[in-house]
Specification:
The chain is mostly helical and 161 residues long. The chain has a domain of 80 residues. Helix content is 51%, strand content 5%. A two-stranded antiparallel sheet has the order 1-2. The longest helix has 18 residues.
């Protein structure tokens, strides 16, 4: 059995003026913002596959793991939430891609065909989220962004399967 140890440090935005938020931060990901909600720490501790410097590609696979555990595994069903969890996952994908200027490597695997409905749903919500960030129709006017989103979804599919 492989055991991973993840180290977190509390970051205080009042002490470290380079931070936007106070919260728990995975020690090997200084480029990522600290987690201001407990679910973020749970995600970093349990849904990531590797230990080491996080990349956007690894984050997409971890989002796939999140999707598998929390949505397909019905974890979110136990809460009375007033939002669509698929939309929340798509928002996370769009936010990470925006932070990385929509640069993401090609994935050597594709989202499994049995999950093609997931890919379509994530893409539809994701495009709407990117358009909300910029302006209506932004993705249609910038096909490279849609290509980046599709590559991200392939990485997400790698984390689901």
């Amino acid at each position: 059995m492989t055991q991973y140890v993840r180290e977190f440090a509390y970051v205080d935005e009042l002490v470290d003026k380079t931070q936007k938020y106070s919260g728990w931060q995975l020690c090997n990901t200084p480029a990522f913002d600290p987690m201001i909600i407990p679910y973020g720490v749970i995600h970093d501790a349990m849904e990531h596959f590797t230990v080491g410097e996080s990349t956007i590609e690894q984050e997409m696979m971890a989002i796939g793991s999140l999707y598998h555990i929390r949505i397909l595994g019905k974890w979110w069903d136990q809460f009375n939430i007033d939002y669509n969890p698929v939309e929340l996952v798509a928002w996370d994908i769009a936010r990470f891609l925006k932070e990385k200027f929509f640069v993401i490597d090609s994935c050597d695997r594709k989202c499994p065909s049995e999950l093609s409905h997931v890919a379509r749903e994530l893409e539809a919500y994701g495009v709407s989220k990117v358009d909300e960030y910029y302006s209506p129709g932004y993705c249609a006017e910038n096909p490279s962004i849609l290509d980046s989103f599709r590559r991200a979804i392939d990485w997400v599919g790698g984390g689901i399967s």
